[in-house]
Amino acid sequence: MLKEYDEIKSSYKKSRDIYDDVLTKGKWWSKLYIRLFWSNVDDNEIAEKVLSYIPDEFSGRLLDVPVGTAVFTHKKYTALKNADITCLDYSDDMLSKARERMKRLENVNLVHGDVGQLPYKNESFDTVLSMNGFHAFPDKKAAFRETYRVLKKGGSFIACFYIKGESKITDSLVRYFLAKKGWFTPPFDTADKLKKRLQKAYDLTYFNVEGSMVYFCAVKQ
After folding, report:
1. What is the pLDDT of residue 24?
2. Which parts of the chain fold into alpha helices (H)?
3. Which residues pair with 85 in a beta bridge?
4. CA distance 3 to 62
5. What are the CA-CA distances from residue 7 to residues 63, 90, 176 (Å)?
6. Has residue 128 got a pLDDT over 80?
7. Residue 49 and residue 185: Cα distance in Å, rounded?
8. I want to staple 16 with a disulfide (CB 3.0 to 4.6 A). Which of 9, 44, 87, 93 is the partner?
9. What is the DSSP string of 151-184?
10. What is the DSSP letter of 82?
11. Parallel, antiparallel, or unpaired for β 84-89 and 61-64?
């Protein structure tokens, strides 16, 4: 498991300069990549929908894991003036970019850490946000267990990530390229398997699939 974590850290270090461009379709080649391999699913639109599940008047404690480069979240966090926000990531390179983006936000604390061993007490957070994280986490059982553990009863688990079984082209890209590069780590849930997993512990407020991406808001029972 430690080897897999090191491979992920290394792969994101190598990709730090293109990560934002891929997610936001900032370059011509990233637009082509999204159109050909991801059914033209727009991460910008999905991110906007996911973040809309957090009201601007939110004033509780929020855990963002993994924060990545904060390419989608830094503007949202600027609006959450009364929230206590903790952003955690395993990659120092991702964190360095996130720190630069959010250096003026006094209510945001950036932390290096592992989602599989979160350094927080049970029911510490009102909301847990995970954008584009679970398809990369090497120990997904631990990630689901820990994000559930630190979330308060009645709190919201909000996330988006890749699911398999929706597109043969995307599944092949993930299997033969992204997973080998260390950016994605199997196993991956299908939409049905993920929904059943979540419904064991959460009430699903929203559950949407676009292409090979799922995004949802689930309330802890």
Report:
1. 62
2. 2-14, 19-24, 28-37, 43-52, 73-79, 92-101, 140-149, 168-173, 179-181, 191-199
3. 62, 108
4. 30
5. 24, 11, 16
6. yes
7. 25
8. 93
9. EEEEEEEEEEEE-SSS-HHHHHHIIIIIHHHTSS
10. T
11. parallel
**Angle value at C-alpha 140, between 122 and 132, nearest 5 degrees:** 95
> What distance lies between CA 100 and its chain's CA centroid?
19
- Quick check: helix, strand or coil at residue 209? strand
List the beta bridge partners of residue 17: none
Query: Which residue in this structure is represented by tokens 């995970």?
Result: 130
Q: How far is the C-alpha of 106 from the C-alpha of 185, rounded, in Å?
A: 34
Rounded distance between C-alpha atoms, residue 142 and residue 137, angstroms: 9
Buried b (16+ CB within 10 A) or exposed e, 18-35: ebbbbbbbeeeebeeebe
Amino acid identity for residue 37 in this structure? F
Asked whether the whole model's pTM tops 0.85, one would answer yes
Report the alpha-carbon distance of residue 181 to residue 101 in Å, rounded: 26
All structural domains of the chain:
2-220 (3.40.50.150)
Task: Tell me whether residue 144 is exposed, middle or buried, using C-beta atoms within 10 angstroms of its C-beta: 0 to 12, 13 to 18, 19 or more.
Answer: buried
Which amino acid appears at position 91 of this protein?
S
Question: pLDDT by residue (tens digit) across 24-60?
Answer: 666 766 677 677 678 888 888 999 999 999 999 999 9
Q: Are 87 and 70 in contact (CB under 8 A)?
A: yes
Residue 190's CB: how many other CB atoms inside 10 A? 14
DSSP of 60-76? SEEEESS-TT-TTHHHH
- Rounded distance between C-alpha atoms, residue 23 and residue 69, angstroms: 11
